[in-house]
Amino acid sequence: MDTKNQQNQIKRRDFLQKSAVFATSAVLLPFFSDHAYGASNRPKNNKAIPTVKLNNGLAMPVLGFGTYSLRGEICERSVADAIAAGYRLIDTASRYGNEIFVGSGIKKSGIEREELFITSKLWVDDAGYEKSKIAFETSLNKLGTGYLDLYLIHRPRGDFKGSWRMMEELHKEGKIKAIGISNFTPAQYDDLMSVAKIKPAINQIETHAFFQEKDPFNYFSKHDVRTEAWAPFAEGRNGLFTNQTLADIGKKHHKSNAQVSLRWHYQRGIVAIPRTVQKAHMAENLNIFDFKLSESEMKAISALDLNVSQFPEWT
Ligand code: NAP
Fold this sequence. Notes:
Mean pLDDT: 89
Number of helices: 11
Low-confidence stretches: 1-6, 9-46
Strand content: 5-15%
Bound molecules: NADP nicotinamide-adenine-dinucleotide phosphate
Number of strands: 10
Strand order of the largest sheet: 3-4-5-6-7-8-9-10
């Protein structure tokens, strides 16, 4: 083996050792094999984050790392820390203005590209067949990841049908492994499907205890489009981190409100992408695979639904 290869092997071993804290603490219990996700594959890196099979067969981690509002050094460091903690799915968007920092965080982690699941999104100003190609290539260059695992239409505005046509082509060329949508209602999805050749794999929407989107969730599930939760903690709005119902449930399992929330998303079959800049929170948010919410606990959380967005400024 040459020196460069040896150095790479050592770097990789160090990285895996650092990640081992999570790998040993999150035990996969037998009931996961038949939970809401169906059969779940172990990721190639043998980490304990289960994966879900998307409608095109691609395996996606059920828990990822959000990067909204993170920029510069803090973004780069948080992404590298998250990967070291065990996260493999990283969510960004051209709109966040941080793809370059996400890309350098990934490089800093030293992890192999194929072990990661990278999502970015096409912003509304770039909607349309021609513009979306340029926007995609710009995102990819900034991230420096060679290809994207998932590319989403960020919002259903402008010529999103033209964007979809281009995304289908980029998918066929192998530049994107799965394509999807974000913030689409069932009616907007139906409109897209009137011209689409490929069905979206994901719809990423605001979903948390206070805005559970039950009807859209059921609709998209029926159409085999996986729901992914943005703001799985509602960014802490409406007192999510101190909510008494979540706290009472958490007490029984020795878990925090954040962990109960993420476990609830998981048991609903929803992929969640919490954001944090704190290493302790990164580890806490991953530590949700060693307990199970009972049916009555799931019902108690279901009853917290206000059916109102906590982000009226974004609608
Ligand atoms: P979020 O994940 O619901 O909440 C983030 C907040 O929770 C941060 O302030 C963080 O603070 C805090 N937090 C994290 N873990 C915690 C814990 N264990 N205990 C207490 N506080 C904790 O909000 P979000 O970032 O808006 O949403 C997640 C991701 O979804 C985004 O980052 C982005 O990637 C994506 N997103 C997509 C869209 C879309 O339109 N598609 C829209 C919004 C967001 P600390 O840093 O101090 O831990």
